[in-house]
Predict the 3D structure of the following.
Amino acid sequence: GENVEQHPSTLSVQEGDSAVIKCTYSDSASNYFPWYKQELGKRPQLIIDIRSNVGEKKDQRIAVTLNKTAKHFSLHITETQPEDSAVYFCAASGYSGGGADGLTFGKGTHLIIQP
Amino acid sequence: NAGVTQTPKFQVLKTGQSMTLQCAQDMNHEYMSWYRQDPGMGLRLIHYSVGAGITDQGEVPNGYNVSRSTTEDFPLRLLSAAPSQTSVYFCASSYSIQDYGYTFGSGTRLTVV
């Protein structure tokens, strides 16, 4: 099955600076890579996703990049704001036994925005 | 349109007790799944279903059962609760198993004493 590694586990940045979270995956057949944001005590919510036929995708202050050759993808948040403080999870689609078996999640990054 | 509804929100069980966590979605999603979330462990897949009558095991299925008799409902059963099953449980649904984002329920915080 798929294995997803996420770094760093904690990231503290000054308000207004940029934040970058990185993930690597193991299954070269993976073709869908979503990112989720989870605020304290809340459910994970999809913030952006990218498919394997695209190298980069942007949505306002958030962007995701994908390098299929190196099997890694990253989340970039620019001009960080206090409401960006949360835990962020990356995920990758996985296959086992010849069939799809859903998303495998990284262990999460706790992003702290310092005022 | 309520999305994904989970009940209960909180539950305390004694070791050995059984219970069912309920999950329902009204988006006509074929794919539904259960994850558990533990500190520092991320989200780990317990069981999933790609349609009514079809279920399969995820990464951590031991101690849990599921069934999918309708498209809307996907209950998770704890057969004999153990302290190791203390966790936050999330149900998620999607149009497909891995090409679209998942919609998560609000979670069930389960404590086994």
Summary: The interface with chain B takes residues 1, 6, 9, 31-32, 34, 42-46, 49, 51, 89, 93-94, 100-108 of chain A (CB under 8 Å). The first strand of chain A starts at residue 4 and ends at 7.
